[in-house]
Design brief:
The complex is a heterodimer of chains A (123) and B (252). By secondary structure, chain A is of the alpha+beta class. In chain A, 61% of the residues lie in helices and 15% in strands. Chain A has a three-stranded antiparallel β-sheet. With 252 residues, chain B is mostly helical. The chains are: A alpha+beta (123), B mainly alpha (252).
Amino acid sequence: MDTRSTQLLKGTLDMCLLATIAQRPCYGYEMVQQLAHQGLDLVGEGSIYPLLSRLQLLGYIEGYLVASRDGPKRKYYRLLPTGAKQLEQWQAEWERFAQAVERILKGERSDEQSRPAHPTTDR
Amino acid sequence: MNRADQHTQQQIADLVEACMGYWELRGIALESSTEMQLELEQHLQQAVSDGKSLEAVLGPNPAAFAEAWAREMHPRFWRGGARVLHGLVYALSVVSTTALISQLLAHSPSFTFTVLAAYLLTGSGLLALLLQLGGFLSPRISTRAGREALMLAGVVLAVLVLRLARMKVNWSMALLSWNWPMTILLLALAVGLFSLDFWRTSHRERSSSATVSMPPLRSVTMFVASVAVFDVMMFVASVAVFDFCRLALRLV
């Protein structure tokens, strides 16, 4: 993944994690797999854990240990009502932001069409 | 499990141990750090079984990863003191038992704590810490022997630098000297602090469901055995290593 995509993902990873957990409770590696399945490959997969801890301390998600048949207990995360509200807010913010960026990008294209490629100076 | 698998398992174990030691020093509650350790270990195991590298999980700098996670866990400085208490108990036990044995064997009422003894104690403590945190190097230097060789090279380099700077140390110089009552007092203090540390550890392990605790008798035996080994090392060092170092430094 290129650096720009990495930077973009860094800024939105907490929101992506919250949205992933909102679908169904899951554990760390599962989240990474789901993100990768959606086309978001993390440079350091472990970077999700500090964010999960932050989300947990903010009261957006809750971690709980689930007994496993073939190994030690596994830590799952589930969404809490505060987290659901926060996710709605973040989604709204993201939509506004993405629309603004899209308008700018489309605007640049329409400018290219309406204006000469190499504007001349007034004499 | 083939040899390559065993090697990777060792790398994972060393990395997780380094992270755990770091989180403990940073003052993260044992219950939290145990869960963090569990999550990290399972993630690394699954990633490796999917053909990913350790760097794909932890990035190029595992220590930075451990610190980034620690920052989000609201560490408390005083919790890191538990590790210091453990080190203090160990140092106090070694010093008091060495003093006791020396006084008994030499039929002398006094004991002298030399620069060499202080150097050995602090050096061993630092080395133990470095060896544990050395696990952070395991994605780059995959074998434990390789990391130990790097540390040894660092020590040799430091000795050479000190030698070139013409720094002279009188290893037999007395730092402290005390008589029987002080030895008994130190011994009593070591036993008291050990009991406190032991009670604290077992109390925390009981309240933490995720921790696998060691049987009390086994942990006491292991502690006593390690103190005894260190005592022997101190005796050997004061007799043989001191002369060897002096000779080696002359040759350098």
